[in-house]
């Protein structure tokens, strides 16, 4: 009945810190990671393996696949899918879905194109108008889902149908709007000057290294849970290899006839995607909003009791998703150079959902990262790129992409089962 | 006897025509575990939700530290230092222990979260509760056992220097060893000077850890007694019949209710 009035704090303090589990060596970290994998916490691993697989297959089947010219193409092609998928991560984190994101992007691109052509406004006003269209769509969807409680599947299916009317009415069937603003079109067809590209790449690596080391120091100084220094070093090295390697690749002259003219530099779309990735990663992992988003996705009732405004979080997630869809619609228009009534109404959305899920974002809510969208988006974009080079009929493309999506969803479902069994 | 930390006086509550609570008096004393017992439908949950600020009162006073306070919602109650640990714990499986303990009240530095301070404070709190079964504070809650989850939920309630903690059936789903841990923890909370309310169906737990027992019977307080003054059998009679010998409600309340 009477237990420990003898200064429990001190006794426990030693016990606790002795018990606390900090992977002190790289071996411990590797073992932790393996345990997590076994427990079903796969993260982006399947997507990375899939990407490597696709690269090996396509490069062995076609010698032009691995050329720098094609790699730069791939980067530009993946841009709009990655951005759309990044937006979808936010609603998927809540266990919701937004089927209308693709056509919302099409509607936004239509508005932007009209502002550019009919009103002759500058590119940034037109861009802001397009993103505002996306944001408004998101507010309405979010309000219907969170206040009326209609399943997001139904609300966004209705928006998927209704929003296709916007470009059709504004453009007219059979027509199309040219999208040749110097800046917006330039995102896809122009490149960052080589020097500026290198400066940015080195700055990113240096910034990441400084941030990781500072974080390591401040955590280890207080004896808090932290990764071992070797792992931090490894992460920095890996990032440096990827960023600097990609920069080197894209900075070389990739013109098919290198003697006649020069194409080099990072396509502008890449810095846009990277900036969005960094921003949303910060929001998801380092802000209260991000934490609350995960909480609502994990257990909405617990979040509500903790004083989190669940309605506000849901509406905001839909606004972010639709706004990112608008950005994605602009990137898609920038790539094709035009906006047509069918823009965004095709498979874009399902590809983007597939990208997020392949990348490791769960359809069941509560799990996912912004980087998932990038990795998954690359997988999704690589398939038509490679099959196109191989001159395959387009039905193969649909079959393969559908198969990959199904595979990713199965991995998600199975790993979820393993998670609940292993309790990781 | 010391003054009660939290006190309800003459509380009535109806849902439509159903009169759930009749003139209920309830007090929580600092440094004591007050057990709230009663059969299903006796009004325990309603009383807890009124204390938690989730339900309003039809009539009656809500006193804290002897002063009448106006309570309009869970936030007011939390501001007083009253925390409720619900039976389903309300933890997010996909977040780790620190993230759960600070959920909804994250500390920030600039525009970002202050993980360093939150992790340190979570550690201190768990250590001060002599929690040594948790491997790491950065462990995902989904990997914890039932007892560890209960511990985290209780630590979450204590983290805010709360003065009163209400625990709804904390041992209902636990095994023998885990029940032991949680009961020890409940006792330690009271020894730290908190007012603890333990809602339980398990008379063994109640007799072991409680200082006082408030028994509800059909929405009325059947008895408010010291644990030394009653036997196991008497508590069961109070719960099932509303009276036991000279203890309990004099009349038969079933016929007296509306």
TrEMBL record, chain A:
Residues 1-24 are annotated as: Disordered. The keyword Transport applies. It comes from the Bacteria. It is found in: Cell membrane. Keywords: Cell inner membrane, Cell membrane, Membrane, Sugar transport, Transmembrane, Transmembrane helix, Transport. GO terms for cellular component: plasma membrane. Part of the binding-protein-dependent transport system for D-xylose. Probably responsible for the translocation of the substrate across the membrane. This is Xylose transport system permease protein XylH.
Automatic annotation (TrEMBL), chain B:
Keywords: ATP-binding, Nucleotide-binding. One of its GO terms (molecular function) is ATP binding. Pfam families: ABC_tran. The keyword Ribosomal protein does not apply. Residues 6-243 form the ABC transporter domain. This is D-xylose transport system ATP-binding protein. It comes from Nocardioides psychrotolerans.
């Amino acid at each position: 009945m009477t237990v420990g009035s003898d200064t429990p704090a001190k006794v426990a303090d030693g016990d606790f810190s002795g018990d606390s589990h900090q992977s002190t060596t790289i071996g411990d970290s590797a073992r932790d990671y393996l345990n997590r994998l076994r427990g079903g916490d796969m993260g982006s691993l399947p997507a990375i393996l899939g990407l490597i697989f696709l690269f090996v297959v396509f490069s062995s089947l076609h010698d032009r696949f691995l050329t720098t010219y094609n790699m730069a193409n791939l980067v530009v092609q993946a841009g709009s899918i990655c951005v759309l998928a990044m937006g979808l991560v936010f609603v998927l984190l809540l266990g919701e879905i937004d089927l209308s994101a693709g056509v919302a992007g099409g509607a936004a691109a239509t508005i932007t194109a009209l502002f550019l052509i009919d009103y002759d406004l500058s590119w940034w006003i037109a861009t802001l108008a397009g993103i505002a269209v996306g944001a408004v769509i998101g507010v309405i969807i979010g309000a219907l889902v969170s206040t009326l409680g209609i399943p997001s599947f139904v609300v966004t299916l209705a928006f998927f149908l209704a929003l296709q009317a916007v470009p059709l009415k504004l453009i007219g069937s059979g027509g199309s709007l040219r999208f040749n603003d110097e800046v917006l079109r330039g995102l896809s067809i122009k490149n960052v000057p080589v020097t500026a590209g290198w400066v940015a790449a080195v700055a990113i690596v240096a910034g990441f290294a400084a941030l990781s080391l500072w974080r390591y120091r401040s955590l280890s100084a207080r004896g808090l849970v932290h990764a071992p220094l070797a792992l931090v070093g490894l992460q920095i090295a890996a990032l440096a290899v990827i960023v600097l390697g990609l920069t080197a690749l894209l900075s070389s002259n990739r013109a098919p006839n290198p003697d006649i003219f020069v194409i080099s530099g990072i396509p502008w779309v890449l810095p846009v995607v990277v900036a969005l990735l960094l921003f949303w990663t910060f929001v998801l992992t380092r802000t209260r909003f991000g934490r609350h988003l995960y909480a609502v996705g994990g257990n909405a009732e617990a979040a509500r009791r903790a004083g989190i405004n669940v309605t506000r979080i849901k509406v905001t997630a839909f606004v972010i998703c639709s706004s990112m869809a608008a950005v994605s619609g602009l990137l898609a228009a920038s790539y094709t150079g035009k906006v047509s009534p069918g823009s965004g109404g095709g498979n874009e959305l399902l590809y983007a959902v597939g990208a997020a899920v392949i990348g490791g974002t769960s359809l069941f809510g509560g799990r996912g990262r912004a980087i998932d969208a990038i990795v998954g988006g690359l997988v999704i974009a690589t398939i038509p790129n490679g099959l196109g080079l191989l001159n395959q009929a387009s039905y193969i493309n649909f079959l393969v992409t559908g198969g990959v999506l199904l595979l990713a969803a199965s991995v998600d479902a199975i790993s979820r089962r393993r998670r609940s069994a292993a309790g990781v | 006897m010391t003054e009660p930390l939290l006190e309800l006086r003459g509380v009535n509550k109806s849902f439509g025509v159903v009169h759930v609570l009749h003139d209920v008096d309830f007090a929580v004393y600092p440094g004591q575990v007050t057990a709230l017992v009663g059969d299903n439908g006796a009004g325990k949950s309603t009383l807890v939700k009124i204390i938690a600020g989730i339900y309003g009162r039809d009539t009656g006073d809500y006193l804290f530290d002897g002063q009448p306070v106006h309570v309009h919602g869970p936030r007011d109650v939390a501001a007083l230092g009253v925390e409720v640990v619900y039976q389903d714990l309300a933890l997010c499986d996909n977040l780790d222990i620190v993230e759960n303990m600070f959920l909804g009240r994250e500390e920030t530095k600039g525009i970002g979260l202050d993980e360093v301070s939150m992790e340190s404070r979570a550690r201190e709190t768990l250590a001060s509760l002599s929690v040594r079964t948790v491997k790491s504070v950065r462990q995902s809650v989904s990997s914890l056992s039932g007892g560890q989850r209960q511990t985290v939920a209780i630590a979450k309630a204590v983290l805010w220097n709360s003065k009163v903690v209400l625990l709804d059936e904390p041992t209902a789903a636990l095994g023998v060893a885990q029940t032991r841990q949680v009961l020890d923890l409940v006792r330690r909370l009271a020894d730290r000077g908190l007012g603890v309310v333990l809602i339980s169906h398990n008379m063994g737990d109640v007799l072991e850890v409680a200082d006082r027992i408030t028994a509800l019977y059909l929405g009325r307080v059947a008895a408010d007694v010291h644990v030394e003054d009653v036997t196991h059998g008497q508590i069961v009679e109070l719960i099932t019949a509303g009276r036991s010998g000279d203890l309990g409600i004099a009349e038969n309340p079933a016929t007296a209710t509306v």
